[in-house]
Design brief:
Helices cover 26% and strands 29% of the residues. It has helices at 2-14, 18-53, 105-112, 137-152, 304-310, 319-327, 363-368, 391-403; strands at 64-69, 81-82, 95-101, 115-122, 125-135, 168-173, 184-189, 198-200, 202-206, 208-213, 216-222, 225-233, 240-243, 251-255, 261-266, 274-279, 296-297, 335-342, 375-383, 409-415. Helix 1 packs antiparallel against helix 2 (18-53).
Amino acid sequence: MEYKKELLQSRIAELKDPIQKRLLQDVLIDVFGELMDYQEQCFHNLEQKLDHEYRDPFTHYDITTGICKKDGIDNASRSLFEVPLPKEQEETTGYLGTMFLASDYPSVQTCMSRTYPAIVQTDKGDYHTTAALTYCQGYLQTFQWLYEQFGANQRQWHTINCPYLYKLLDIIDQEAKVPNNAVIQKVSIQLGEFSDDMTDGVVLVWNISKTICKPKIDAAAAGITSYYIHQIPIDDPDAGYLAMPEGEELFSVVFSDDQRHLLVRTEKEAHPALELLKVEPVCPEKDHTALLYPLQSNKRTMRHADRQALGQPCFLWTKGEVARMLSAYEVFHEFELVDICADMQGVGNAGNAVPIKGIEMNPFIRVHSFLKQKRKIVLVLRAKDVKDIFRYEKMFFLLAELQLCTQEYEWVGVFEND
């Protein structure tokens, strides 16, 4: 097209008649202008078609997490809800309560390795005891339960980015002085230099809600097996859905061809009422939850190069390839990739830094990956904000995403500027 445009321009330059020259100039501008606009529209439509056909399977299942005071939750929120705790959380032996510690990962590890004097006020009186800190088991169980729902629904998922989870610590009575039937009113614990970082009455929130629906039920047969199809209308096409049919170990969940209905197939029985988990799209402008820190998400933006790489038989573990993979995640914008080093050699820029073992929030990696006796790849990052108390947990999230892409290596990380 550019060649033809240059040819016409050369022909126009040869004309002497000003009227003919104007006419040809108008034709050139109008015709080629329309052709260029048409070409741009065709390319745009093609990109939209490719985006639809090769869309990121995680798009509707991005998990957003936040933290706030219990009285700071917006009851009218459409997207952020309190993360539920198991009923047996408060029945744990020696459990005195849960607190939030606004310190970085090494400091939290230091606190968990010590014990502290505590005064517990109850309805039966005050007790002086020794307390220890552990990760909040209730929240850990809830997140593991969520992973299990993804697996049961045969939905693809990736690691949840929840740095606040590992700042929430259970207070455990080491001396078992507080009676199990006592109602705890207040726990006073002295953490020394970390006392100012302690906050109680804090809860996690996420963009997952539960709903009960009454589906339209049909029976169908597949070979010698019969099953039930539960048709559930979808009111929000931008949300993700997970079904939880009671008593069904094997079931399948698919979307209808028009993407307007969720089809849940079960074998044991028909369910007149089905419980669904709904992953809500987050709109911060319409939410008034009093968050203590900004929301965190595992959201990523899949570009054309990323989609093409998914179809490759293996990954090329080079610095450029790792940078491409990590740059798709929003949280990576808070870091700079310095280098990757095989077998923990050449960490040079990090001085004498020793790779830190990651926290195991992802049961899939812990249970289904055999990480022992594998070559290690060290991810050397530079945190743009060295005072960010969540930088380690965010790094562990990125390491877990890399770990899901490989079986032959174990990924560990260090910060150059720590």
